[in-house]
């Protein structure tokens, strides 16, 4: 997409170290500067953050609807389980909702 071409080399989220280019943008699961993991250009993105109370994780989903209202375009789901159950829940959210199949192993 055109927005990817604009932010590919010049973005406030870019960090260049040791010959690698990383990105600190929200909803970038691997922190790589690539189209696949970019959290800004896709209409649907997935992000994982630690919960505010320190127990569990918060899964942040960017919804396709409501793109013109950025505050309401994110859905947050808190998962407070053990590590294996958390991974299964995350896989279930991505696969069963047919969210983004290319991110299932990220």
From TrEMBL:
Keywords: Ribonucleoprotein, Ribosomal protein. The keyword Ribosomal protein applies. InterPro entries: Ribosomal_eL28, Ribosomal_eL28/Mak16. It comes from the Eukaryota. Signal peptide: none annotated. It holds the Pfam family Ribosomal_L28e. The keyword Lyase does not apply. Gene3D superfamilies: 3.30.390.110. GO terms for biological process: translation. GO terms for cellular component: ribonucleoprotein complex; ribosome. Residues 5-106 form the Ribosomal eL28/Mak16 domain. GO terms for molecular function: structural constituent of ribosome. Belongs to the eukaryotic ribosomal protein eL28 family. This is Large ribosomal subunit protein eL28.
């Amino acid at each position: 997409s055109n927005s990817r071409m604009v932010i590919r080399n010049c973005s406030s989220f870019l960090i260049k170290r040791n010959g690698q280019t990383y990105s600190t943008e929200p909803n970038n699961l691997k922190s790589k500067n690539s189209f696949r993991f970019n959290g800004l250009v896709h209409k649907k993105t997935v992000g994982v953050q630690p919960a505010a109370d320190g127990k569990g994780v918060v899964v942040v989903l960017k919804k396709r609807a409501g793109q013109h209202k950025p505050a309401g375009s994110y859905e947050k789901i808190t998962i407070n389980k053990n590590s294996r159950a958390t991974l299964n829940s995350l896989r279930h959210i991505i696969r069963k909702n047919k969210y983004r199949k290319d991110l299932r192993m990220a």
